[in-house]
Amino acid sequence: MKVILYMNNFLKKLEAVLSRKDKQFLLLLVLFSILISFVEMIGISAIMPFIVVATDFSVIHSNHIFNKLYVFFSFDSSIQFIVVFGIILILFYIARSLLNLLYFHLMARFAFGRHHVLANRLFKIYLNLSYQNFLKLNSSALTKVIVTEAHNLTLFLQNFLFVISEIFVAAFIYIALLFVNYKITLLLTIVLAIKILLMTKTITKSIKKAGQSREQMQKDFFEIINRSFQNFQMLKFSTEQDKFLDSFAEASGKYAKANIVNASYAHVPRLSLEAIGFSLIIFIILYLIVKNQEDASSAIGLLSVYILALYRLMPSANRILTSYNQMMFYKNSLNIVHENILLKTEENQKSEIVFTEKFEFVNVSFSYEPDKPVLKNLSFTISKGEHIAIIGESGNGKSTLVNIISGLMHPTEGSILIDNVPLSKDNIVSWRQKFGYIPQNIYLFDGTIAENVAFGRYIDEGKIISVLKQAKIYDFVQSKGGIYTLVGEGGRQLSGGQKQRIAIARALYDDPEVLILDEATSALDKKVEAEFLNDINSILKHRTVILITHSTEIIDSSYKKFIINQGKINV
Questions:
Q1: Cα–Cα distance measured from residue 75 to residue 86, given in angstroms and rounded to the nearest whole number
Q2: Would residue 283 count as lying in a domain?
Q3: Side by side, which strands form the sheet with 544-549?
Q4: How many other CB atoms are found less than 10 A from the CB of residue 327?
Q5: Are residues 471 and 504 in contact, defined by beta-carbon separation less than 8 angstroms?
Q6: pLDDT at 274
Q7: How far apart are CA 24 and CA 19, in angstroms?
Q8: Which whole number is the average pLDDT over 469-475?
Q9: Among 207, 275, 287, 414, which is 20 to 30 Å from 222 by CA?
């Protein structure tokens, strides 16, 4: 009962992870594996008649089927019959090898092709998360799922396919052996059943435990690396570097140990099965000698079948056990990918919304937790072209308010109107595209200034030069070698103020209707800050500007001031 529930749960998760096309491909592979298994059975069964005929020519005429074939094809001699029989078998075994090669290619294509599909699917899901839900997740954990767990799931799928295909192979050969000699076959069954039972109760259990340890240690591994590199400057000032090293060494060591256990135990099925296989062949020979009270030459055909069957069955049993153990080692990858694929994403439409006059907050409230409102019953209007300063101390909800204005977060209560049209999931994408955003903490990726300004969009050199001039940094860029100057990871080749001006150019690149400056001038000295705000006022004279700040010194009379305190606003 427990096994049935486990398989049912496993198949449900697999169904959710795989697309419709993936499932069709998987079904094709299963059907192909049945064909391969049938071919393998014929390959095992065909060798005994050939050996019998080759060792005793009289069988050609005494056996009803052989005699009919001999007469129908008008063979001239027994030797000619055997030669043709042998050539047909050779061609059959060549075709069998090619068919197996095609099957392994399709299996690899399915398994490793899913990594590409799953990685893209996961990345799309993460990008379509709501901003609020994304903030609840750990970015290093998301990276691990795409890079590692999606790959491990492909290994899981590959081993799953190996188990399925080899079960069919073993079943067909087993059925054939039952017809050859059921007593010897039942003995083989008992020996292998005991072997498999012992393996699953000992080795498989250890590998499954190692797989759970691998997943947790790898998660810690990524988290420690990410935490250290993201806070490298702070770490250099710290006296606790050894704690980071110790934590990393512990996670790395346990991760290595889990993989060592898996790699070591992976050889146990093959080695033990080889010992059992050779022992069974010797046992069969002894059995035939004792039974017939003579040498085993009279049973050479039967012996050949069992030797060939064991030659094929032992690798099948080995692959089944090894692949099953690997499935247990990577089982958590299926659980993790399944959980991430079920993450709730935004289902927004792209209906156009026009902003020509104003947007309004109507009794808007927001809370991250029930009964703990961050913003309380806000109602106000911002006209197009107004310059707004949202002023308040840290923790009073300034950034939350702007995230709601820009559509990154949704009100818990109340509504937002743009030219009297309610903001909804149908038009929120269009609304967000009207915003340019300059954050307080700037991240520049390891690329050129032009690439960082365009930020994945088409690089228009003329437009890049224009926005760099507007951001008052073009002369500096020219002095450093032009717009294709490398900035280094995180913009380490630039000062804080220069990075913020690059970010300003990035925000202006799409000529936004509304520009948000989230403490964006904090890295500039007072004189440069004042000059920059004057530039912003002139550049975006007829555009809407929302400035978030905790300082009133930089705000001139052109700004309407929204003072936020304890979730309320005074205009």
A1: 14
A2: yes
A3: 435-438, 514-518, 544-549, 387-391, 559-565, 568-570
A4: 24
A5: yes
A6: 59
A7: 9
A8: 84
A9: 207
Residue 30 has pLDDT above 70, yes or no: yes
Nearest to 143, CA basis, from 218, 221, 222: 222
Cα–Cα distance for residue pair 172/148, rounded to 1 Å: 37
| 508 backbone dihedrals φ, ψ, rounded to 5° | -85, -10
> Would you give the DSSP letter of residue 441?
S
Domain stops at, among 308, 341, 374:
341
Q: What domain count does the chain have?
A: 2
The string of DSSP letters for 16-79 reads HHS-HHHHHHHHHHHHHHHHHHHHHHHHHHHHHHHHHHHH-TTHHHHSHHHHHHHHHTT-S-HH
Report the CATH number at residue 317. Answer: 1.20.1560.10
Note whether 473 and 435 are within 8 A (CB).
no
The verdict on 93 and 62 lying in the same domain is yes
- What is the band of 522 on the pLDDT scale with cuts at 50, 70, 90? low
CB-CB contact of 551 with 559 (8 Å): no
Residues 324 and 193 in one domain: yes
Structure tokens of 515?
A: 């520009």
CB 442 within 8 A of CB 503: yes
Are residues 258 and 158 in contact, defined by beta-carbon separation less than 8 angstroms?
no
| pLDDT score, position 392 | 79
What is the 3-class SS of 67-103, one letter each residue?
HHHHHHCCCCCHHHHHHHHHHHHHHHHHHHHHHHHHH
Residue type, 330: Y
Write the pLDDT tens digit of every residue in 330-367.
Answer: 888 888 888 888 888 887 777 888 888 888 988 988 88
CA pair distance 144, 503, nearest whole angstrom: 28
Q: How far apart are CA 247 and CA 113, in angstroms?
A: 35
Contact 302, 288 (CB under 8 A): yes
User: Hey, which residues does 569 pair with through a beta bridge?
Assistant: 564
In a domain, 236, yes or no: yes
- pLDDT, tens digit, 9 for 90 and up, residues 166-178: 788 777 777 777 7
Last residue of a domain, one of 341, 368, 393: 341
Q: What is the mean pLDDT of the chain?
A: 77
Phi, psi at 561, each rounded to 5°: -100, 125
Residues near 251 by Cβ (< 8 Å), separated by ≥ 6? 217, 220, 221, 224
Same domain, 148 and 29: yes
Structural domain of residue 200, as residue ranges? 2-341
* pTM of the model as a whole: 0.69
For residues 16 and 157, state if they share a domain: yes
Per-residue pLDDT band at 78 (split at 50, 70, 90) = confident
Dump pLDDT digits (tens) for 113-152: 787 888 888 888 888 888 888 888 887 788 888 888 888 8
**Residue 21 within a domain:** yes
Residues 6+ apart with CB under 8 A from 32: 103, 106
Provide φ and ψ at 11, rounded to 5°.
-65, -35
Within this chain, do residues 336 and 364 fall inside the same structural domain, yes or no? no
Dihedral of the alpha carbons of 242, 244, 246, 249, in degrees to the nearest 10? -130
In this structure, the answer to whether residues 31 and 77 fall within a common structural domain is yes
